[in-house]
Amino acid sequence: MSAANGYAVGAGLVLLVDVLWTASNFLANTVLTHGYNKPFAVTYLSTASFVAYLVPFAFLYWYRGKPSAEDAPPQWYEKLGFRLPPMYPPPADQVRESQRSLLRAPSDGRPLRPSSIDGRRPSSNLNMRVDAPDAMATRPRRALSRGRSFTKRGTEESQELTRDAPPSYGSESDGSEAGDALHLVPASELPPLSLSETAVLSMQFAVVWFAANWTFVAALGYTSVASGTTLGSSSGFFTLLLGSMVGTDSFSPGKLASVFLSFFGVALVAWADSGAPHAVGVAPRPILGDVLAIVSAMCYALYVTLLKMRIGSEDRISMPLFLGLVGLFNLVAFWPVGLVLDLIGIEPLAWPSDGLMWAGLGVNMAITVVSDFAYLLAMLKSSPLFTTVGLSLTIPMAALGDVVRDPASINMQNALGSVLVLLSFGAIAWEENWTA
Question: Which SUPFAM superfamilies does the annotation name (predicted)?
Fold first, then answer.
């Protein structure tokens, strides 16, 4: 397939994801506002549907019985992240040998797998400190620690992330002890996470992931889909702020302008919702819905930033495996929360009252799985920037859908706020792509 045809397929997949995500938001809004106001139940079922991603890995384990050889040519599904990693991290001697080759031959900028941590931002590749090969054999294993420092290369500011992941990573205290024994290596060049490491990581981040989705679904029960989508998309704004604080991101004039655009856009949307009559089928508490959507964006930014700090680069983790394990952990661990919500009367347990509600829940679960897989395909066929900017079309799509349902639901302030967030969204994506 030619490059032009590949981009055409990628563009079609991006539009498909836009339509699916927008449809999912409208379905959730309809379910919540037409007799089944159970945001926890809707979130629980939607996140549990990620377990479907584990089916291909189970098949790979049954078919191969062991991880594939490192020198085997990658299959199409492996490029999407569906590759069975080793059960445990590699032995220390293998890590030392790989680090020798890395220190002799720096990164050549090879492309990452299409598995972005944040589906609304370009992928990242932080620099991480690793022990020199000769020092690793004598260094004790230490607990995980994180730090940051900044170095200047011409006009570009590179970010350094310190991580101690036994046996090859140095902590901040290690750096003071060994000095030159620490070297900077792009995170994408480090060994990929094993199955056990991915499982532990998924358990650690499942709570933040669930909180981000729960608050967003709850927001759709109180505000319009357009407002919820616009405010939820401000996660890029919060990710930039949080990332600049912890060292995974840095400000620039373009990013600063994007922050102000996003801030004013969010303020305009909230102002419009505070004075406008609520839309058909939406509870008359739009401000509560707006606040929940903003909390969702903040939780998602926290999830993205912490995950970047832990692994450095999306290339080191299989996102389908990670999401599948997150779904499995949510399925197993969060059902007691539903019982507690029932006991205290916040969200009584109840089945959907009719077949339409059942169909809405089922279709929403299917959309969750299909849309994320289509996103991975779109990243493979096009580029991170194209996909990121293309996904921002969910904002005008949601606004158009609300206008079709109820023309009075959109006013000038709301429309202008959506445009500002959309512009901020695209500007941050463009800046990230050209400064990466």
Answer: Multidrug resistance efflux transporter EmrE (SSF103481)
